[in-house]
Amino acid sequence: MYNAAVKSQGKSLDFQQIAVSYAAHNALTWIFHGTRLYPYIDQALKTIQTQILATASPFNSTEAVLAGRSAARDVVISRADDGNNDFVDYTFGPPVPGVYQLTVNGYGLPPDDPQVPYVRMFATGKPATTYLAPQPPSVNSASYESYLAYVKAIGASNSTSRTQDQTDIALFWRESAPM
User: Fold this and answer.
1) How far, in Å, are 92, 97, 101, 107, 160 from residue 104 at the CA level?
2) How many CB atoms are closer than 10 A to CB 49?
3) With the C-alpha atoms ordered 91, 95, 98, 100, is the resulting torsion angle positive or negative?
4) Is the model's pTM score more than 0.85?
5) What pLDDT does 179 receive?
6) Which of 4, 10, 113, 139 could form a disulfide with 19 if both were Cys (CB 3.0 to 4.6 A apart)?
7) Would you say 27 and 45 are in contact if contact means Cβ atoms under 8 Å apart?
8) pLDDT > 90 fraction of the chain, expressed in percent and rounded
């Protein structure tokens, strides 16, 4: 989106908004390929485009669309060899507490995106493992029960302790997961 803004610098605000909107659309559809999000991403573009064009001063919308598409393409090409699409054969660990196992009705699928630890981050080029969150407490530690209670509390479908941001983040990641 930044690239689209730079490419359309000096053009009208309406032109810039269309270019950035198309860049966002095309980048998102590339990032979430193979997911159920396409209709939502398409609808968001259609809605914003309709709103912009309804009040826009005259400008070459075809040129704005091409600027946005070009910007998205540049970013996608720069990410083409970042490791995000590399195959990693996930192997389940031993069935002991604290080691990921299939959940009940887990459909026999491994976790999503096992290649992520090997992906090179866009802005830094460093592996994703550079930015790991801290490990949860050991199942044998005194703090484990309170940690587990917290996870259960915010993870409950009718949670009253979860913030709206936490709900939105969970739904975002759930919707981007393959079926």
Assistant:
1) 15, 15, 9, 8, 25
2) 19
3) positive
4) no
5) 45
6) 4
7) no
8) 34
CA distances from 142 to 33, 38, 98, 138, 177 (A): 42, 45, 15, 9, 34
| Cα gap 24→26, rounded to integer Å | 6
Where are the chain's structural domains? 2-78
List all residues 6 or more positions away from 55 whose beta carbon is below 8 Å from its beta carbon.
14
DSSP string, 117-164: GGPBPTTT--BGGGGPPPPPPPTTSTTHHHHHHHHHHHHSTT-SSS-H
Cα gap 137→61, rounded to integer Å: 54
